[in-house]
Amino acid sequence: MNLDETAEEQQLRAEIRSYVAGIPGDVLSGRTFQDKIAVDKMLAGGGYLGFHWPTEFGGQSGTPTMAAVIDEELALGGITSSSSPSRFGINLLGPTLMEHGTRPQIERFLPPILRVEEIWCQGFSEPDAGSDLAGVRCALVDGDPPRVYGSKLWTSQANQADWCFALVRTEGNSRRHGNLNFVLIDMKQPGIQVRPIQQITGNAHFNELHFDGVIVQPDHIVGGRNNGWRVAMTTLAAERTYGQLSRFSQYRTELEKLDRLLERHGALQADEWAARLEQVRADVMSIRHLSLLLVSKASAGEDVGVLPSIIKLCWSTTHQRIAEIGLEIATVFGDELDFWFPLWLESRAETIYAGSSQIQLNIIAQRGLRLPRHGHGRAEALSTATKKE
Amino acid sequence: VDFRFDDDALDLFRSAHDSLERCLPTSRLRENRDAGVGWRQVARDGWLHAGLPASAGGGELPLSLVCGIAREAGELIAGDGFVSNAVLIPTILTGTADADNLVAAMAELPGVLIADGRPAAAFPDGQDEQAWCFGAEPGLWAYRVRDQELQVFAPESWSFEPLAGLGITTGTIRVTGMPDVVSPLTRSSNLVPGEARLVHAATLIGSSNRVLTDLVAYVKTRNQFGEPLGTFQAIQHGLAMLHLRIEVAWAATAYAALQPAETDIATACLHARAAARMADQLLTQFFGAISMTWEHDAHLYLKTSRLGQSRFSAAGTHAVAPTTSREVLA
User: Fold this and answer.
1) With pLDDT > 70 as the criterion, what percentage of chain B qualifies?
2) Shortest CB distance from B247 goes to which of A297, A310, A377?
3) Residue A220: left (phi > 0), alpha (psi -120 to 50), or beta?
4) Closest of A271, A248, A260, A245 to residue A340, by C-alpha
5) Does the pLDDT value for residue A249 go beyond 60?
6) Using 50, 70 and 90 to split pLDDT, how confident is the model at A337?
7) Scanning every residue of chain B, which has its alpha carbon at the shortest distance from the alpha carbon of A292?
């Protein structure tokens, strides 16, 4: 057990820090989607995008620890991985195709992701299938070619994406997991309607997607027909192995901003805020501790268990508390409201998306603590009673 | 970076648990049995000296492993005794004229510290009667610092009154005889080392984890409304949150053990207390009425845990508040 970075990791940290310092300030501070694409392209140019992908797929075979080092340094430089347009391709689709994709699928789709030439969005959630992923109803109708009908909801950057990986259901009697398909959909074709949804902050990062006879090329079904659940689980599992050191850096920066605000108004030692800040700083530290544990386990090839759910709960609730105290202080002094109020509003969503808090608690309880699912007891009692009869 | 305990460490913790469970079963507290023999055996097995220097017969284990052993002690309501015997008393002994011999001899004299354990900032000069002593059990020797000398009392030379008559191992120690051992202090130690607070945090995590383990086992088998209690989401989410609190606290403790900076220790203590508070709450709520009786061990955990948390509540324990985010999150 040690917290010392290897010489290789230290060198990587120094390199990425120097590389980020060389990115022009106007590129880093850009707020538009195209500005963020420009940042991704700069990172791709340095070989830092998809650094953790195996070399055979165009990456550098970086360990999870190295990926975490990059994430942390980028966030310190103001580049948060959660706002990278390439994140769906790099972090989710890439590892999924490496596991389940055919050679032609891999050769066709992975290189443009690394070059930031094709941007992806994720079509999992639907109007009637939010947390319950197996409730997907979007239909894949057989034909030549097969076509998709239905709707997807809360699809980030669908209005900007070139492609969408989506879960859709073939016809048949199978329910829940049985007839799902993981398909790749070209977003630049007729039959796709994208409706940006104005969010609580006035921005529109989410979209509603309507598919009306949208073509799916037969060779764009990943992992084989009706095998979509297994493929989607790989997608979700890939996400689970990433630490959250980027968020640690981001939250630290926000807390330092809050310190400066308090100092400006001579309130750094105010008792109530000091006590709450003490707690929230301890909570931010826990994101770092748990991320280090996660990447250590992932680097060693160990099962990470329910640690990703614990980390998700920690970062989402901690960020809400930072925003809460930040807004309170900003309100009292009438200062920096244009920063803290939108942050407070945006942070409300963090315990909903990427697996709601309730889903994460279910995962910890049922997979981590092995507590029985609801109905399990009745089924067992019924089975026992039947046997007795 | 490798922030995992390796297989050797996990084996070590299991061995410690086995030894502690064999020597110090929780029934000793229920029946108020003499615990001297059990504690001496734990000392002979090497667990109390695990983190001490080789010159004092110690195992020179790093603080992270000592915390792991402490966690196991906490599982068996032996946490306060472990903190006293593995950290606090040896810290005092190293300041005596005959340090190495005394520390080595401690294997035969495991004890309780006559000192108010709450402030966590000082070893006050010992009185004949001292309230808020932690880890007092029949059969232990008693240690105190008085007039710049260390005094050690045989088990029959002190008496114990549990706090409010209910404190289990926390309460008032009254000296009733003369010290059997006296050694002048050549170096006074006014500050409780940060390591002691961290080890204490680890014991609280162990206690909380034992509560979680027992509750999980209970709600899997206890049926209500035709279902095991554990199928209900209100129960599941409560236990999931406790698991989260324990993992957060343990990661913070392990981190602080690797580089014991004041802010990291304070952070670990804060998380350990949060986990313990939650364990206390769920312990009675989920076990239900039986936990409010002497017919179940729950009350032993509840009382020991809650009083133990008072060691963290004094000013100076959490040095985080007056500092800035940049310092804490460096």
Assistant:
1) 91
2) A310
3) alpha
4) A260
5) yes
6) very high
7) B3
Provide the pLDDT for residue B310: 85
Cα separations in angstroms, A235 against A91, A94, A96, A178, B174: 8, 9, 5, 17, 64
ipTM for this prediction: 0.92
Chain-chain contact of A282 with B270 (C-beta, under 8 angstroms): yes
Nearest to B202 by CA among B5, B2, B1: B5
User: Does the beta-carbon distance from A369 to B239 stay under 8 Å?
Assistant: yes
Cβ-Cβ contacts under 8 Å for B169 (sequence gap 6 or more): B29, B77, B80, B81, B134, B135, B136, B137, B162, B304
* Residues sharing a CB contact under 8 Å with residue A103, sequence separation 6 or more, in sequence order: none
State how far Cα A206 lies from the chain centre: 14
What pLDDT score does A377 carry? 52
Residue B300 CA to residue A25 CA, distance in Å, equals 60
CA-CA distances (angstroms) from residue A255 to A77, A252, B133?
Answer: 16, 5, 39
Cβ distance B198 to B268 under 8 Å?
yes
Query: Which of A162, A166, A106 lies closest to A136, judged by CA?
Result: A166
pLDDT tens digits, one per residue of A82-127: 889 999 999 999 999 999 999 999 999 999 999 999 999 999 999 8
* DSSP notation for B155-216: GGGEEEEEGGGT-TT-EEEEE-S--SEEEEBSS---SPPHHHHHHHHHHHHHHHHHHHHHHH
Provide the pLDDT confidence category of residue B1 given band limits of 50, 70 and 90: confident
pLDDT attached to residue B314: 45
Q: Which chain B residues have a beta carbon less than 8 Å from that of A278? A: 270, 318, 320-321
Q: Which residues of A belong to the active site?
A: 239
Which H/E stretch holds residue A318? helix A307-333
CB pairs under 8 A between A and B: 168
Nearest-Cα distance to chain B for A144, in Å, is 46
**What pTM does this model have?**
0.91
Chain B residues within 8 A of A282 when measuring between CB atoms: 252, 266-267, 270-271, 320, 328
Q: How far is CA B89 from the centre of its chain?
A: 13
Residue B37 pLDDT greater than 80, yes or no: yes
Report yes or no: A188 and A163 within 8 Å, Cβ to Cβ.
Answer: no
pLDDT at B176: 96
Distance CA A171, CA A179 (A): 8
Predicted confidence at residue B106, as pLDDT, reads 80
The answer on pLDDT for B193 being more than 80 is no
Half-sphere exposure of A157 (CA within 13 A, CB side): 24
**A359, A369, A378, A380: which to substitute to probe chain B, counting the most B Cβ within 10 Å?**
A369
Alpha-carbon distance B171 to B307, whole Å?
10
